[in-house]
Amino acid sequence: MIARRGPRPLLLHLALATLRTQATLAGWTTSSPASPPWSNASASWKQSLGQPILDLLPPPPEMAQSRQANPNAALAAALRRQSDLIAGIAAYRRHPWHRTLEDPPTLWTEGESRLLDYGGAAAGRPVLFVPSLVNRAHILDLAPDQSMLRHLAGRGQRVLLLDWGWPGEAERGFTLTDYIAGRLERALAAVGEPVVLAGYCMGGLLSVAAAQRRPDLVAALALLATPWDFHAADAEAARRLPGLLPLLEPLMAPTGRLPIDAIQVLFAMLDPWGIANKYSAFARLDPDSPRARQFVAIEDWLNDGVPLAGAVARECLAGWYGANTPAAGTWRVAGVAVDPARLRLPAFVAIPARDRIVPPESARPLAALIPGAVLHAPAAGHVGMVAGSSAERALWGPMADWLAGL
């Protein structure tokens, strides 16, 4: 029985696999290595994803490699890759694991958002974790042996998690200012004492702005895989993202929100060829192994996304990515420019070396701007740093040590 719909959107991943096969053959027939990567592409497979999305794709690695091979070998390798991808997707969809962890007590609620209390010692500063708006908060609490929050609570730290929840009737009209100067600040006030504010990914940007606005509520700051300079890794690709807004507006019009699958497409463009690679590798795993269960746990989280309020989607795509407003100093919350250089508090900045969602080049400028920030650069990926098999060594332990030092 098929119990899952992922990977989402499935049609995109199958289309990318087809594009990759055709690009492999196109690369073999390209006469000059200097030719544009998609120059031999047929109109039919250009139209299968749409030209604006295709423009965001880097050429598959096999495109150049296939020039050194014979066409039969290139085609055979491409077909094996597609077969492995289908096998991996099928194995994932029928895997029996499902998350069963119960949520801890709720300390505060507003709208669809909750502040969850994971307990821990009453002494010392509470740590309030702020995740991204576009993913479920439980990436930090996936399973009993895969939970950063329960690990820190077990080490004597009082741990809180802001679960943004699903954007309902009230939240669908929110801007970033509404989330930061409104809901996040009220969650901070509900704790009753200054906290260590810990932001993950997009949540780190929100946390920087909140820490600057409310130094009375934030005693220290931890930023985990947080972007800042959106043009550092690939400025041209970032500037092209606002061009997708005309395609996305009809999708947002009925509900005022950017749908989950549209967000998944944008994330897939960050590493379009890596998705097939990881599912192909999963097909070869023992389904009863810890690695297989961990893969399923993370993929279930990735495929269980949250829609994004339309105004926030526009601000992120046109502002953060298109105009690079954080690094340019022009990102404003409630009319005030967000400037990390103005922060005067202990800060811990974790920048995973193998992050493809937030390239290290994007995150390092933020660490450099915060006076006295402690920089931690584990050999891990964006998700692996917080929930992978080596997460305790990569992040949990070092962050716990830093918190103890406070």
Descriptive account of the structure:
By secondary structure, this protein is of the alpha/beta class. It folds into two domains: 10-94 and 276-303, no CATH class; 106-232 and 307-405, Alpha/Beta hydrolase fold, catalytic domain (Rossmann fold). Helices cover 46% and strands 12% of the residues. It has helices at residues 10-29, 43-47, 51-54, 61-65, 71-93, 148-154, 176-191, 202-213, 235-240, 245-252, 260-268, 274-283, 290-303, 310-323, 325-328, 360-369, 384-387, 391-405; strands spanning 106-110, 113-117, 127-130, 159-163, 195-200, 218-224, 257-258, 308-309, 332-333, 336-337, 347-350, 374-376. The strands form three sheets. It has an eight-stranded mixed β-sheet with strand order 1-2-4-3-5-6-11-12, with helices on both faces. The protein has a two-stranded antiparallel ribbon with strand order 7-8. It is globular and about 65 Å long. Mean pLDDT is 89; it is low at 28-42.
